[in-house]
Structure formats: structure tokens, C-alpha cells
Specification:
The chain has about 325 residues and is an all-alpha fold. It has 13 helices and no strands. One of its GO terms (cellular component) is plasma membrane.
Amino acid sequence: MNASLRASFVLALIGAVALAAGLALGPVATSILATDETSRVIVWEIRFPRSLTAWLVGAALGLSGAALQGLLRNPLADSGVLGLSGFAALGAVIAFAFGFAAFAPLLALLFALLAAMLVTTLGWAARGPASLVLIGVGLSSFAGGLIALALNLAPNPGALADLVNWTLGSVEGRSLEHVALVAGFLVVGAAFIFAAARGLQALTLGEEAAAAIGANLTRTRTLVVLGAAACTGGATAVAGVIGFVGIAAPHLVRALAGHDPARLLLPSALAGGAMLVCADVAVRLLPTDTELKLGVAAALIGGPVFALIAARLASRGGDA
């Protein structure tokens, strides 16, 4: 068993334990095995779809982050930093704001795909980590400005409150329909990304060397872009904007699974899922009158992690 499979096995166990904790823990502690009607409703109709949604969203973000880092050969790349999450949120906000909520997943996917194409096209030409991050930050800021404009033009205070809560990121109140939606996007996105695994491995040699050994770079780029857009679009459409999971998960598992981008994909997905379930359990247990939004918690934890990673890279001269 290689290091990637060992890491995946361990992370799968951690994810299973986190999911079990997600069923039992909350403002009211409940046994998973309890047979009374109240406990059954709390565990299986409220907490089970919520925790499973959190795991799937985290897995989608972790997988897309690992794929984008491998494709762009940039350890700071992820769907949030590169603007995919922001554009996906913009698509969904437009759908919600103008009364087309049923089309929110489709618009989130299309806008995430648009952002992925812009970043990949511009970043591929720039070929520099700083340029890639700057392009992504620019796109994120642009999407943020448009989201603020959509919020400003919200038709009534109730709609405005709903949109603000949604953009903060949360899996509270999610149902099995949401589970099915994000799972479908994750399956499609994962199929694209894992089909590009050999190309990601070849890219570690550099573009010219990869092309020399027969790697189809256009196919690899297209598959990763489509896969990352599907994962990010589905996750954002269901849970709102949740940042830093995509950038943190690959870095956390790299010490266990190695630096091969293809072998980081599965462990990163499992790590992202476990991270977000743990974060969701934590926000439930915080003694606050209003439950902290999951996107806020991820930003409060992920922001310092991102800064530490950037500082570490800077001390190494930008080398991953």
C-alpha cells in the first residue's frame, strides 16, 4: 500500500468519525442509537443530511483545490483564491435575487466555469505564481463587487437578509435533496479531474517535458477546468461561499501522501470533507445566541493558515 492509499484510509476513518460526531453532537446531545421519535428526527432528518452535505461540500472544494494546484503548479491556487467560488456565488445570487432560485445551481456552475476559463487562459500565459494569484484576486474582487450590487438592488429586506445569510456560507437546514445535488456535481467533477491525473503527473516535469513524453496538455487543462468548475459550482450552490478548504486540504495531506499531484487528489478530497464536518460540529457547539456561519468559521481559521502558507513559500523563494 503506497503513501497515498494509507493517507486516504486514515482520512476516510477520520471522516467517518467526524460524521458520527456530527450526528450525535449539537445544542442537544443525542445518541445515534436512540429509538424515540424526537431523537430519530434530530439525528436522521436534521443532522444526517446537514453533516453529509458538509462532507460532500468539503470534499468537492478539497478535490478542486488539489487539481488546480497541480494544473497551475501553484501551491496558492484554489477555487476561492482564483475566483471560482466568487463567480459561482455571483451566479447563484443573481438567480436568487431575480426570482430564478431553481436555476441557481446551473448559474453557479456556468459562472464557475467562466471564472475557471479566464484564470486558466490568463494564468497559463503569465506563468508566474504571483500573476496567477493577482488574476484570481482581481476576479474575486470583481465578483464581490457585483454581488454587493445585486444585494444593493434586492427587491425587499427579506430577500436581502436571505441573500446575505446565503453568501456567508452554511449547511444549516440542508436536506437530502441538497445532498443529491452536490453529490451529483461532485461525481461529475471528480470523473473529469481523475481522468486528468496522468496529465497532472506529467506537468510536474514542466510543460515542454510533459509534451515531449506525450502528455496532452490541452486535454488535461480542459478536464481539470471542467472538473473544478463542477465541484465548485455544486458546492457553492448548496452551501454558499466557503473559502480556504480548497487551499488548506492539499497542504495538510502533502506531508502524508507526497507531492505527486495525481496521488494528492483522493486524500485532499477526504481531508476537505473531514475538515468541513469538524468545522460544522464546532460552530454548533459554540455558546452563541446565533449560530456562527460555516463560511465565517472557515475564513477565521483559514485566513491565518493561508498567511502562514504564503509566508512559508516566500521564505523559500516561491518554491512549493
